[in-house]
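Example 9 (inverse folding). The structure is encoded as follows.
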């Protein structure tokens, strides 16, 4: 799971960043893109090896993606970008792609992410636009990787391996390991029983850009799969970076069900969404811990207590998760109390 960092960092490149790939990018801009008298700035970086630059020339701007070929495979990005565009959702348009070097010239969706502007006054309109985009994307029919049992289990294993064992240095006993295994299987079976649709897989407030036309601009979609219809919706309304009351969450569920062609009972869907959200949040917590311990990126640790609140909330709503909830309490794991109170 990739997360955007420093979306508003527009410091001049030449002021502090020099490397051979940057020199190659400048040569590509001049020789292949035929841009003269241009300015290049940092646009953003993310949790992978990709980074992004903004290039301005003659009152126009583009984003240059730098994705080292030995670290990043851009073929999925290209394929998914075209699918999303064809569905009527705004994704970065690909103007030029140097596959050998891993450079891409993209349309500029701006520097303002949803998270920068979300308030009680703006959220309903922003989320209405986002939900429409989810429904449009779910109409995409393509041969994508399946969100299968292996992938679901691996993602949830990150919670145990990187958060419980590595980050908290907890030694789990046999019964606790069984509780985790049973919970993982419960959440996995719920996801696999649902019909499969296009899933962006990281549809949250840092990956949605505010645009004047066809809002939002959707980014970070290269890991798309076919999976649960609830996945992108719960990623949006139970965001790891911002939280909203349960009553608002359910209003957005109703908006989605009204627009969607999904034929499902409302209460059944809500449970599926809650279980799918818990799977995602277990994964996210594990990734946040891994980013710190493996990748030297500690900033995501601050998002763990909020994300844990979603896990605790779902555990308290469903009897099937009572043992998992009790185990978290025994292990003295604490969620952010303000978030937990807000989302109940």
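The amino acid assigned to each position is listed next.
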């Amino acid at each position: 799971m990739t997360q955007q960092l420093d979306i508003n960092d527009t410091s001049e490149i030449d002021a502090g960043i020099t490397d051979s790939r940057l020199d190659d990018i400048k040569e590509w801009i001049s020789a292949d893109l035929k841009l003269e008298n241009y300015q290049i700035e940092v646009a953003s970086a993310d949790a992978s090896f990709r980074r992004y630059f903004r290039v301005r020339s003659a009152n126009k701007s583009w984003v240059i993606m730098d994705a080292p070929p030995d670290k990043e495979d851009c073929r999925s990005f290209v394929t998914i970008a075209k699918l999303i565009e064809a569905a009527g959702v705004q994704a970065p348009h690909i103007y030029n792609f140097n596959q050998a070097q891993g450079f891409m010239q993209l349309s500029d969706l701006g520097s303002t992410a949803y998270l920068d502007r979300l308030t009680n006054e703006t959220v309903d309109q922003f989320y209405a636009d986002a939900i429409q985009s989810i429904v449009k994307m779910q109409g995409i029919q393509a041969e994508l990787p399946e969100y299968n049992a292996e992938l679901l289990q691996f993602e949830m294993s990150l919670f145990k391996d990187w958060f419980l064992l590595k980050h908290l240095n907890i030694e789990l006993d046999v019964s606790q390991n069984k509780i985790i295994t049973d919970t993982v299987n419960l959440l996995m079976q719920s996801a696999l029983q649902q019909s499969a649709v296009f899933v962006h897989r990281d549809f949250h407030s840092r990956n949605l850009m505010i645009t004047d036309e066809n809002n939002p601009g959707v980014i970070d979609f290269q890991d798309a799969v076919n999976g649960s219809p609830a996945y992108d919706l719960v990623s949006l309304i139970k965001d790891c970076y911002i939280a909203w009351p349960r009553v608002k969450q359910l209003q957005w569920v109703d908006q989605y069900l009204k627009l969607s062609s999904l034929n499902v009972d409302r209460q059944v869907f809500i449970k599926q969404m809650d279980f799918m959200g818990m799977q995602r949040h277990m994964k996210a917590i594990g990734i946040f811990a891994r980013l710190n311990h493996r990748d030297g990126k500690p900033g995501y640790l601050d998002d763990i207590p909020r994300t844990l609140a979603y896990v605790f909330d779902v555990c308290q709503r469903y009897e099937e998760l009572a043992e998992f909830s009790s185990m978290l309490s025994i292990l003295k794991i604490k969620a952010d109390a303000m978030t937990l109170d807000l989302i109940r």
